[in-house]
Amino acid sequence: MSADSCGGKVALRNLVNSINCIRDRVRDGESNESDGAFNLSNFWDTLNQAVKAVSQEATKLSLAFSKPPLPSQQDGEKLAESIMKSILTLSTVYYWLPKSQGLALRRLVRDATVEVLEGVAQLVEVIMSSPVESLSQEQLMSTGGVWSACDQFPQLSKDNKAAVVVVLLCEVRVVKDAIEEIEQALAEGEDPFNDVLDDNQDGDEPRGNQDMYWSENDRQVIGACQGLIKAAAACLRKLKSAVKSNGDFSTPQNVSQLDDLADISKEISPGVDDLALCLYPPMDYNGVETNVCKLAALLKKVLEIIRSSHVCGESELTWVQFLDGAIDHNLQKAKDLIQQES
């Protein structure tokens, strides 16, 4: 390899640091708020063009370093300058999106932009460390990673209402998984650790440690907790439908209400997970009661925020009131069963 072609890679060293600095600013920075009218459609058109340019520049860079002879130092500098220009444009367009368009939307666009920047930085690092003789598998994968990160932009939610629906859909899936895990553990019989620990057992004799098994009262407590977790899942499903049907982002107040609904809803799955973890034997009744009360209080708060938001019409009020009663019922049932055990 000639000294001049070595210089082509040398020109990329500063590029990685610059990309990482821009990534950090995008991740932590604030938008450029303006008093003028903001055209969301124009923003998306410009953003998609900027993303496409980054993808093209990344491809050009990868091809240039895919086989000998490598670019000279001068050519390497030109490539680095060109890809840096596309990245600066992308980050600048991202900053155009004001928080007044919705925090859920802005987080979605921010995370997608950061993913592109991280992908390009990784590609440059791989190019610098790859041998000259051939295009490495790692370089191919890194190039594909940039393409994948860029290709997701046309599919992103285009407004705050759609972005909040995405948040709620993710929460629904997480809570659904928790419900299925509990049901699977109960269906496996008295020993929920059977599939985890069986490989370590010699012979067919059952384990004698009763701390690994549920008592009958344990199972009744689990039933009450399942009722509460299912109420959480129903709340998220119903809220998702209400946002899709009634959600509005034409006024600052409604945009803010959508963000409030998204933020409070994201607290549900961690609360469900905390409760579910307490249910495995040996069951910690104090922990179960604490987490049952916390989850019930959180769900009550969620329902109150739904009730006072613009997504709650007369038909929504019916299920809000029903779930409010279901939460009270399952909370009291769990507390009574725990009290019996103590």
UniProtKB/TrEMBL annotation:
The keyword Nucleus applies. Gene3D superfamilies: I/LWEQ domain (1.20.1410.10), Talin, central domain (1.20.1420.10). Residues 190-211 are annotated as: Disordered. One of its GO terms (cellular component) is nucleus. The keyword Ubl conjugation does not apply. It holds the Pfam family GCIP_N. Keywords: Cell cycle, Cytoplasm, Nucleus. It is found in: Cytoplasm; Nucleus. Residues 47-187 form the Cyclin-D1-binding protein 1-like N-terminal domain. Residues 190-203 have a biased composition (Acidic residues). Residues 199-304 form the Cyclin-D1-binding protein 1-like C-terminal domain. Belongs to the CCNDBP1 family. PANTHER family: CYCLIN D1-BINDING PROTEIN 1 (PTHR15492), CYCLIN-D1-BINDING PROTEIN 1 (PTHR15492:SF1). This is Cyclin D1 binding protein 1.
